[in-house]
Automatic annotation (TrEMBL):
Family assignment from sequence similarity: In the C-terminal section; belongs to the AIR carboxylase family. Class I subfamily.
Source organism, top-level taxon: Eukaryota
Residues of the full protein shown: 439 to 619 of 629
Any one GO MF annotation of this record: ATP binding
BP GO annotations: 'de novo' IMP biosynthetic process
Protein name, as recorded: Phosphoribosylaminoimidazole carboxylase
Keywords, ordered alphabetically: ATP-binding, Decarboxylase, Lyase, Nucleotide-binding, Purine biosynthesis
Length: 181
């Protein structure tokens, strides 16, 4: 991958402030090649001052690490998991099968099939094992959904989300006003 060697991603995350000692959200991805897409989630979480961690966990290449990660996440205080993967994107669903934490899957567009393969791999979970799915490459919405979950018990985040929505609204209305000038 272009961004960082997989084994060094944690280090990169720390250096960029993309990691916290007591994360509430865990952002994982199948490969460092997913990082250009997944870093938008890190940026949103940073902006909302939500403690999070960022790492690589591959369902296929590091199956045991994935099991360990999923089984230990709740015990470490993590409240929501965001998992991004492309192609045969089994990571979010397999993590969801090994934890009762809410899991948000991000279908990452790989080099072929336009991300439809990733989307289908994540969205059609069997009954009993839910995995929320956002749009292809939309890790921003995955982070916002995670924050909405945390906001159910953190009023401060609720207020921050309200302010975020108002800003979006103001931006659109400013464009409308410009068009109508
Ligand atoms: C998936 O395969 C990863 O999530 C990534 O999107 C895709 C390609 O991975 P690399 O071959 O670039 O490592 O497991």
């Amino acid at each position: 991958g272009a961004y960082a060697e997989p084994e060094r991603l944690d280090e990169v995350a720390h250096r960029k402030g993309f990691a916290s000692a007591n994360p509430l959200v865990s952002v994982v991805m199948g490969s460092d090649s997913d990082l250009p897409v997944m870093k938008a989630a890190a940026e949103v979480l940073t902006r909302f001052e939500v403690p999070f961690e960022l790492s690589i966990v591959s369902a296929h290449r590091t199956a045991m690490r994935m099991e360990e990660f999923a089984h230990s996440a709740a015990g470490r205080g993590v409240r929501v998991i965001i998992a991004g993967a492309g192609g045969a994107a089994h990571l979010p669903g397999m993590i969801a099968s090994a934890t009762s934490l809410p899991v948000v899957g991000v279908p990452v567009k790989a080099s072929v099939l336009d991300g439809v393969d990733s989307l289908y791999s994540i969205v059609q979970m069997p009954r009993g094992i839910p995995c929320a799915t956002v749009g292809v490459n939309n890790s921003t919405n995955a982070a916002l959904l995670a924050i909405r979950i945390l906001a159910t018990y953190q009023p401060k985040l609720q207020r921050a989300l309200d302010a975020y929505s108002h800003n979006l609204e103001d931006e659109v209305l400013a464009k409308v006003a410009k068009l109508e000038e």
